[in-house]
Amino acid sequence: MAFTFQINNGVKFNHNKNLLKKADENIPELKHEKIHPVKIVDIISDKNAMNGFKAIKSDKKIERLSDYSFKKGQRLVLDFGNHAVGHFKIDLNSVGSPMDAPAYLHLTFAETPAEIGVDSSTYDGWLSSSWIAEEYVHLDVLPTTLKMPRRYSFRYVEIEVKDTSPKWQISFSNPEVTTESAVSVKDVPKVEIDDPMLKKIDQVSIKTLQDCMQEVFEDGPKRDHRLWLGDLRLQALANYATFNNQELVKRCLYLFGGMTTEEGKISANVFTKPESIPDDTFMYDYSLFFISVLKDYFDNFKDQSILDDLYPVAKKEIELALKEIGTDNILKMNEDWPVFVDWSNDIDKQASGQAILIYVLKQFVALAEQKQDNDINKYKRIIDDLSKAAKDELFDSNKGLFISGPDREVNIASQVWMVIAHVLNDDENNELMTKSVEELFPVTGIATPYMYHHIALALFESGHKNDGVELIKSYWGKMVDLGADTFWEAFEPEDPNFSPYGSPVINSYCHAWSCTPTYLIRKYLVK
Amino acid sequence: MAFTFQINNGVKFNHNKNLLKKADENIPELKHEKIHPVKIVDIISDKNAMNGFKAIKSDKKIERLSDYSFKKGQRLVLDFGNHAVGHFKIDLNSVGSPMDAPAYLHLTFAETPAEIGVDSSTYDGWLSSSWIAEEYVHLDVLPTTLKMPRRYSFRYVEIEVKDTSPKWQISFSNPEVTTESAVSVKDVPKVEIDDPMLKKIDQVSIKTLQDCMQEVFEDGPKRDHRLWLGDLRLQALANYATFNNQELVKRCLYLFGGMTTEEGKISANVFTKPESIPDDTFMYDYSLFFISVLKDYFDNFKDQSILDDLYPVAKKEIELALKEIGTDNILKMNEDWPVFVDWSNDIDKQASGQAILIYVLKQFVALAEQKQDNDINKYKRIIDDLSKAAKDELFDSNKGLFISGPDREVNIASQVWMVIAHVLNDDENNELMTKSVEELFPVTGIATPYMYHHIALALFESGHKNDGVELIKSYWGKMVDLGADTFWEAFEPEDPNFSPYGSPVINSYCHAWSCTPTYLIRKYLVK
Questions:
Q1: Is the CB of B226 inside 8 Å of chain A's CB atoms?
Q2: What is the reported pLDDT for A9?
Q3: Chain B residues within an 8 Å CB radius of A271
Q4: What is the pLDDT of residue B9?
Q5: Least buried of A20, A110, A334, B275, by fewest C-beta within 10 Å?
Q6: Residue of B nearest to A222 (CA)
Q7: Please, what is the average pLDDT of chain B?
Q8: CA of B273 to nearest chain A CA: how many angstroms apart?
Q9: What distance in Å separates the CA atoms of residue A509 and residue A507, rounded to the nearest whole number?
Q10: Is A164 in CB contact (< 8 Å) with chain B?
């Protein structure tokens, strides 16, 4: 997730100190590792490469780095061999006559070669250019160690010498990154995955998740460091299948639960610096997913205390969500609390929203049973009513597919969410997805791994395992083929260079909501 | 001084640990003062203003600074009311929705309005662009205090908001500069100067000197922080007349004396960071001025111990300088050890060099007397020989002026230095400068306050007090009229916008060698 949809400055929020204290008590102690570049590379144009640029091995050898000197206009590109999140430092010295002017450097931190290859000054998109991972640095005295104070997310570092003087050059040595993450890959259980591409996809998924697991589950460590609720749901599921870190999910649940609006609505995302602040953005499905995260967490850790703390918040959310239902038991679309489902605004989201509500209500009922809530039968009835309305009003039996909105639009999202919500029985679900594959595949116009995840999930949930594997391979596998070290925020297989922002320099190439194949593989494909 | 002339990488230097230890023992403890901006200004084009830009009072009030918020592309220019050298800090906060992207700022520190008005990216001169006093800064979390780690030399600070996001703006508060100098203006004796322009010139001279007196006498606090020997000579004289700080001159003498070449030659300048390093640039007159600085220092402080330490270095320098004299007792020009005199290479410098050698030899003889050196009569004879040769070979009695070089060029520098060296008697000197004023004034083609100082000095030394005052007013006074808070590295009255580098963004507008009017005023004009 990266987009924000609403500016609701007038919104007032509760800050439940008790819950937020528990959020703070679960800030993980970050783990650090020191890593070093594996080679020096040159970034060159290649029209067949992702976004038109690729990294090739330089004539310069990393072992001899300190022997090279760089003058005005010259560039050094270090390749750390894999994606990393952390702090960069490097030693610099002057070579030649005494240093008669400051050293002036431009540093670019890049997850992919194109972020170096593309001139960042050409970026003119709507997302803040302040996310471009570049810095200008003056150093008055060499030798020195340049320790970059900010954390970056990158594989490549370009250091361009903007100026020295004609009398001296700069030499570099001891580049090093101290990585940061709440988790370590060595904590992930080894599993047998025979298919080499699936094995690779599993690894890249885990690396993606690791690099997004910081003091919260970050959206992306390069861009949008905040915690999004719908993304948290997927990250937490992937986490249970791999690192199985408890405290970070717990922290994130308390953050959302501790800061609802005065009426009880949960923000789509929260910021945690300089202090915990909920964003003034609300999305219907994201608010509801608080219940999903709580349910999945409870299933995994059987932690009654968090359920006792947060069940009232979850119940309030359900009550607010149900107010959006019409007398016909169909979700009314409300532009002040929109249904997200996917970035695309070309698809109608009513049927998806209806399905998501049913999906979440079923999870809520399981929690209500755990809490022995007296209202439980009321919720069960509502599930029945909503499901019946979905089948009666939103299923086109001629087409064999769900329709959505006033124009009776047939789209992939509606089918997928109805399957995930198990509105139909298993045979019907199988048939629905057979039909969906026939009619709606190959998927086009969808750029988010988030939506692709739900399509793959629906295939697995409806007995289309082979199609599920094929989708994983054709989507995430294509990113691997294009050189992904971590999975990307946005990817359209039919247009690999698509950027929602018009430039790769602002794209995030390690984005949490893309990490789910490890969850799907380990849940549906590994014994 | 700013220029460097030679790249002599092969040169080997002695490092006399005993002398350098004394240099280090005399590093001054810097004095600090906290200052605050007096107003918010706008920088606007004005073809009549210095370099085409001036600062006018903004509609925004400095007292209400924190009430204003700034979005992408907006700028704040703070005016501290006078020149300052030090560290800048300012508090920042975000206004509006939660901060969903880093803050990205561009800061420009400017001694004059044009350094903000002129787009720094247009600079294409030969001097390193790394001197341009601008920074780009990302701040991940607001509120914060932005403390700029580097020291700047400036009156104005422009903060341009490169980007925030559409959802929030930046507000600023508590801008502050902690100034740095080895000296304080309150230590300068008050003197009566009736003429308001001379009084102002005296004040600006003192401010210039103060801001250049750091851990060495700096060339300019904006650009070229190193210590130049010929410039030290003038700064030290101005210092004796004002702050009268002993340790800083002492430190600088030990720095030059402690790091001669293997044959004993003294560099034109030294660097002191990361450690003391002599530059590989040598100028005949600058090397000789080591003796001048030592003599002036001894006259002022009667410090026998430094004379005992450094007399051998001075004597060695004289011996090396005398090797450059031909059998005709005229200085031979040596491109490996050129005579500087002035930046201009359009003037022949042989006669000036001859005069400077005589001038310095006379100072050396005074030191030799103090040291009771047995060789003293040899040096006196040499002075006589050199003076006789100057009068016989370099004075054109028809013209009544000194000539220089194979083309018998008549230039102002030759007359001035012959006067300062007192090669002629007082009446002849008076006549020479009368003739010089008639024939060679108004001075053109000279851009350095350094050369203008010597012209003014020659006028005072030859009984042309009124002409001296007039020159001070027409040169330094014109800078004051153009808005100088401190005196500039370079100024051609006939072309006020002249820059030796092609752009004001790289010019130094507080440059030590321009601070001498306070010396001239206090020596020749104040009772």
A1: yes
A2: 59
A3: 98-100
A4: 59
A5: B275
A6: B101
A7: 96
A8: 6
A9: 6
A10: yes
Question: What average pLDDT does range B161-186 have in this prediction?
Answer: 97
pLDDT(A5) > 70:
no
Given the structure tokens 């952390």, which residue do they identify?
Answer: A86
Please tell me the distance in Å from B464's CA to the nearest CA on chain A. 40
Beta-carbon separation of A9 and B271 below 8 A? no
Of A100, A101, A128, the CB nearest to B163: A128
Sequence-distant (6+) residues with CB within 8 A of A260 are A13, A14, A266, A267, A278, A313, A316, A317
pLDDT of residue A10: 75
Dihedral over Cα of A475, A477, A480, A486: its sign: positive
pLDDT at site B4: 43
| pLDDT per residue as tens digits for the range B21-30 | 999 999 999 9
Question: Over A81-147, what HEC string results?
Answer: EEEEEEEEEEEEEEEECCCCCCEEEEEEEECCCHHHHCCHHHCCCCCCHHHCCEEEEEECCCCEEEE
Q: 0.80 cut: is pTM over it?
A: yes
Residue A279 contacts B, CB cutoff 8 Å: yes
Enumerate domains of chain A plus CATH numbers.
17-29+196-525 (1.50.10.10), 31-181 (2.60.120.260)
Alpha helices per DSSP H over B246-325:
246-257, 284-301, 304-322
How far apart are the C-alpha atoms of A276 and A264, rounded to whole Å?
17
- CB neighbours of residue A45 within 10 Å: 11
For strands B75-96 and B103-110, give the pairing. unpaired
Cα separation values, B457 from A141, B294, B462, B464, B510, Å = 37, 20, 9, 10, 21
Residue A1: pLDDT over 90: no
pLDDT above 90: percentage of residues in chain A: 96
In the numeric block, which tokens belong to residue B452?
A: 């203008």
- Interchain contact B95–A (C-beta under 8 A): no
Contact B9 A165 (CB under 8 A): no
- In chain A, residues with a C-beta closer than 8 Å to the C-beta of B225 are 140
Q: For residue B340, what are the CA distances in angstroms to B1, B236, B288, B337, B492?
A: 10, 19, 11, 9, 18
Give pLDDT tens digits for A16-70. 999 999 999 999 999 999 999 999 999 999 999 999 999 999 999 999 999 999 9
Residue identified by tokens 């023992």 is: B25
Quote ipTM for the complex: 0.95
Query: Tokens 């918010």 belong to which residue?
Result: B40
Look at the block and give the residue holding tokens 């402080």.
Answer: B301
**A479: three-class secondary structure by DSSP:** helix
